[in-house]
Amino acid sequence: MRKIKIFDTTLRDGEQSAGVNLNFSEKLEISKQLEKLGVDIIEAGFPAASKGDFASVAEIANVVRNSSVTGLARSVKGDMDAAWEALKDGAEPRLHVFLATSPIHRQFKLKQTKEQVVETAVSAVKYAAARFPIVQWSAEDACRTELDYLAHIVEQVIRAGAQIINIPDTVGYITPIEYGNIFRYLRENVPSIDKVQLSAHCHDDLGMAIANSLAAVEAGANQIEGTINGIGERAGNAALEAVAVALYTRADHYKASTRLNLKEIKRTSDLVSKLTGMIIPPNKAVVGRNAFAHESGIHQDGVLKEKSTYEIISPDLVGVSENSMVLGKHSGRHAFRNRLQELELKVSEEEANKLFITFKALADKKKEMTDEDLVALVLEETLSE
Ligand code: KIV
Ligand code: ZN
């Protein structure tokens, strides 16, 4: 099994979600939970962005010992100096420095030629490598960059001292096959590529962030970046919990694993949702309220007979106590009887059959039949006898 490192940027890219603003103690609480979850790297913030960011990155670097802590910096000395001050006392000071490489960014944002961008990147990486033991370099908007130019600049920054090369799909534009091909191209066309680790960083604008991250693993990436619950700029980043569970569940296919303690997923997801105020959609993979809920009669009957009929992930794996049978208009007799038993509502076979007819009529009018509804139904039936 190949080991895939998990780089969590909930506190940096995740905090860039519109409307999210975490305070010092909230960031600290999340970072401690991320450490428990077992993420390899925590991107704690952007130290040059504000005094608050600086203070929280410094505190997290001091407190967290079992995950490596990093901070983001643009390719300017001031940003890298601020990051060094914040991170220098950490267990493994690591800088994440980036520069945009795509034609659109070169022309409109940086106003630099291809050659100037290479020069800026190389001198930033040299400056960083003279201070930090570990330097990660990101080619912002890599996926809209000419492939031969991307390979060229990657080779130059490796020679300048970068140990991790990140290929962000900054605008969530790429498809899984194309993304995998970028990694394959770099592995074949960058002479020094074997000296570094390759990292994937995907945004979800077209809903492909998780699939793209997994395609990168197939193409040789050994680090995946993302956030808890997939929060982040615009439509968000790759949801790390789903990436990790996909790698675990389909280990037969990916032949790769992470060191995450998957049982901590639910707790981490709930904490991030509570502190950021970003509500988790019920149908969200792995952590949504409905991720382990079965509603239709056919599915409920199957799961009651043998869970694996409709469950590929055991709820217990990610720290959810049990699956749930939601009773509604699609539910069948088997789940209905089962729930009555769980609620210790004792009824005869004949009563149960009568109750099921009333239950179905009521369920047709309601989204969900609650336990209280069932108790009321049984009481009504037994009182009317
Ligand atoms: O999406 C992106 O390009 C980023 C970089 C700063 C890595 O978040
Ligand atoms: Zn990003």
TrEMBL record:
Is GTP-binding one of the keywords UniProt gives this record? no
Q: What class of enzyme is it?
A: transferase
GO BP: any one term: L-leucine biosynthetic process
- What is this protein's function per UniProt? Catalyzes the condensation of the acetyl group of acetyl-CoA with 3-methyl-2-oxobutanoate (2-ketoisovalerate) to form 3-carboxy-3-hydroxy-4-methylpentanoate (2-isopropylmalate).
Entry keyword annotation includes Cytoplasm:
yes
Q: How does it assemble?
A: Homodimer.
Family the UniProt entry places it in = Belongs to the alpha-IPM synthase/homocitrate synthase family. LeuA type 1 subfamily.
List the pathway annotation. Answer: Amino-acid biosynthesis; L-leucine biosynthesis; L-leucine from 3-methyl-2-oxobutanoate: step 1/4
Q: Give the EC number.
A: 2.3.3.13
Q: Which cofactor does it need?
A: Mn(2+)
Q: Which residues form the Pyruvate carboxyltransferase domain?
A: 4-266
Q: MF terms per GO, please?
A: 2-isopropylmalate synthase activity; acetyl-CoA C-acetyltransferase activity; manganese ion binding
Q: What is this protein called?
A: 2-isopropylmalate synthase
Which reaction is the catalytic activity of this chain?
Answer: 3-methyl-2-oxobutanoate + acetyl-CoA + H2O = (2S)-2-isopropylmalate + CoA + H(+)
Keywords for the protein's UniProt record, in alphabetical order:
Amino-acid biosynthesis, Branched-chain amino acid biosynthesis, Cytoplasm, Leucine biosynthesis, Manganese, Metal-binding, Transferase
Q: Which residues bind Mn(2+)?
A: 13, 201, 203, 237
Q: Which domain of life is it from?
A: Bacteria
GO CC, any one term: cytoplasm
